[in-house]
């Protein structure tokens, strides 16, 4: 559904050329949710602007459902943008309009008949759980309710793609969960393709099927969530399932273990204790189900009369990725 190929964006700043996006390539299948993560200045905002044609890329292509948006004429840009629904960090509602009037706004811009607008707005507000707040103004709504109105407005043009730019960073944890659940449900209900721009790893873990790490305008890591977390050499997997860096007992070896699929459910540590006459102390860890696969990341302290090399070899044979903690 979304294919970005060799996307590049440069700006002139006096005599200097600033490269904001450098050869960005990614693909998002229809009906899935893809996360773009990165620190401030990584190029996330520029990517959003290029995807929505607010900025023309310097080179490369953005193809949505077979149509290259970078080749759209200036006179057709507004029509092309209707294929992408935009959800903003702070909802960006018009204070002088009610919830229903905010949702109606994009339909009014394309001169949709009033009867059709009323029907569509009612359906969308019901879809996001705000039917009873149709006549409420933004000042009368909570942060989560405002974001729901923003989502309904983004869906008014029946887009193929929903682009969410930091959709929960201004919300409290409980409201964040509600909004993420709504986005996930809408993806399935409407068969949307969703791109989430975020710096919050929790958002990626909670709803994304795949993820890309953007650094200094380049995609550093990219892939399905299971592959990214299961990559022992990648930094993104460790950010999604982090472990502390401090040692508990400097005299004993510590191992960082990544367990994927069956190894995350098998009694690997119990068998290690029995087989190697070892005392195993779990210092920190987590076991989670991400994108349908079970993962465990543990830091363990091992006290055994057997060489640590034999223990790590056994764990690797059992399907556990092992690193000796620094």
UniProtKB/TrEMBL annotation:
Pfam families named among the record's database cross-references: ABC_tran, NIL
A GO molecular-function annotation: ATP binding
Keyword Nucleotide-binding: yes
Keywords: Amino-acid transport, ATP-binding, Cell membrane, Membrane, Nucleotide-binding, Translocase, Transport
Domain ABC transporter: 2-241
Gene3D superfamilies membership: 3.30.70.260, P-loop containing nucleotide triphosphate hydrolases
CDD domains linked: ABC_MetN_methionine_transporter
Domain of life: Bacteria
InterPro entries linked to this entry: AAA+_ATPase, ABC_transporter-like_ATP-bd, ABC_transporter-like_CS, ACT-like_dom_sf, MetN_ABC, MetN_ABC_transporter-like, NIL_domain, P-loop_NTPase
Protein name: Methionine ABC transporter ATP-binding protein MetN
